[in-house]
Amino acid sequence: MKGLMILFRRELALAWSGGGGPLLACGFFLCLTALIPLAAGGDPAGLRPIAGGVAWLALALSSILSLERLFERDLEDGALDLIALGPVPLELVVLTKAKAQWLAVGVPLALTAPVAAITLGLPPSLAPLVALSALIGSLGFALTGALGAALALGSKRGGLLIAVVVLPLFIPPVVFGAGALERAVNGLDPAPALAFLAAYVLFAAVVTPFAGAAAVRNAQG
Amino acid sequence: MITVSALTVSRGERVLFRDLSFHIAPGEAVALTGANGAGKTSLLRALAGFIRPDAGIIAFADSEPAEARTRHIHWLGHQDGLKTGRRARDELTFQSEWAGADADGIAAAIDVLALEPLLDLEVRKLSAGQRRRLAFARLVAAPRPLWLLDEPFAPLDARWRAALGLMMQAHLDKGGAILAAVHDPLPVTARPLDIGAGR
Prior knowledge:
The complex is a heterodimer.
Chain A: H1 2-17, H2 22-40, H3 44-47, H4 51-64, H5 68-76, H6 79-84, H7 90-119, H8 127-151, H9 158-169, H10 171-185, H11 191-220
Helix pairs in contact in A: 1-7, 2-4, 2-7, 4-7, 4-8, 4-10, 7-8, 7-11, 8-9, 8-10, 8-11, 10-11
Chain B: E1 2-11, E2 14-24, E3 29-33, H1 40-47, E4 55-60, H2 65-71, E5 73-76, H3 88-98, H4 103-112, H5 128-141, E6 146-150, H6 158-173, E7 177-181, E8 191-194
Parallel strand pairs in B: 3-7, 3-8, 5-6, 6-7
Antiparallel strand pairs in B: 1-2, 1-4
């Protein structure tokens, strides 16, 4: 337990201090949201029906930004070797890194999401639902993102590879998250879509540690 | 401390060494030599569990390999594993605590390696030799019996080579063991282990 806390504090500090921190991700998120109405033309009403979906897409893209930092830097500077010889199994190391990524980047993004969604034309009364669904969804993004970052380890141009590996895995949460908002806009209960979103997170929480740890071991050998 | 029997390690298609056997007893230092590319680093990485050997057995005294690697081995590779953007104090604390050090151990390491003036600097502002001393601190701070060192002295000046020699001797006197890949002689009495000419 103590070992996990030592690693978690380090990961949080690295996420906040290094490049690609939460401010960058949130800034990217807001820029994307500001660009979309401009690209869509002069009529904001045309954007309104797809506002939830577009906000979720922007959230997914912003979640990818700082993933390269997660394992690649530790592999480059040799810290991954030290971490592998520590008190915590690699599976839990992967899970801890994903959790720190969520807390440092995912949560700020989720709190930015209502602003973005309302800018795009979603009713302000849905702001709490946007934040809640984005909180759950960004945990899923952090978990599958960590898996993608581990799989891309050691390859040249790793950052681009991460995006290609991870984006397809981001399809389910985008579908469920945008679906929850769409149901709410149409006056339906968003709970079923949120339940699917939570189920995706649980699935990712089971798969990511084992697959990610295997990928890290492979990269070290 | 560690017994290696009939170890064969290859990288890609190329076999680095075949049927290598040796034993390192507590209190013993072994200087691992060999030409560039002979497989010194690969041997150390195999002992640390990073590389899966093709054949052979790596056995640790009193513990399973998995437990030995998380509790009994200190690893100091080519790279220091330090994050350049963080303060030296943060990196020292993380590396030492992660290896199992307590506050007393960290204070002792800072003292012995004269790191106090460096602690508030960012790692990027330290020279290669200073970074190596900072990375060495975890070996002093957290007691782990087997040290695996890969070219540990490369960036250090003569004074610090001698000082680290004293630290290694103290480790050996406490029953620890050292396996170090080196080109220059170790500053402690060491048994040579040559793994060949490479190619």
